[in-house]
Write a structure and sequence with these properties.
alpha/beta; 7 strands; 111 residues; two-stranded antiparallel sheet; single chain
Length: 111
């Protein structure tokens, strides 16, 4: 695997970044975890996710897949979209960019 320096941080990230947007909806959890583990085995240390992917389910899958390996990986995430969950997980309506006047309270993921 080829690696690139990330600015002046000292971090070296793989030239390939694993995107996880489809994990938890189009790609089921078990297969998603297999994909993440295979990517890591091949030298990928850079994983992209976001709390808005499948209303947070994708981040939960990534967390399960990287358990015990977190310190050797670079996780890129995004935030700032206000989402309203629908009837089924993954179904949501986008209400636009973050409303800084009314931020959502922080809550930890369930154990």
């Amino acid at each position: 695997m080829e690696y690139r320096k990330m600015g002046r941080t000292g971090l070296k990230v793989s030239a390939f970044c694993l995107g996880t947007m489809t994990f938890g909806r189009q790609v089921q959890e078990e297969e998603s975890i297999e994909i993440i583990q295979k990517a890591i085995d091949l030298g990928v240390n850079f994983i992209d996710t976001a709390d808005m992917y499948v209303n947070g389910v994708t981040e939960e899958i990534v967390a399960k897949a990287i358990k015990g390996q977190r310190n050797s990986l670079v996780i890129a995430s995004k935030g700032g979209h206000i989402r309203k969950p629908g009837k089924k997980y993954g179904t949501s309506k986008d209400y636009g960019p973050i409303d800084l006047a009314r931020p959502r309270p922080f809550h930890e993921w369930p154990a």
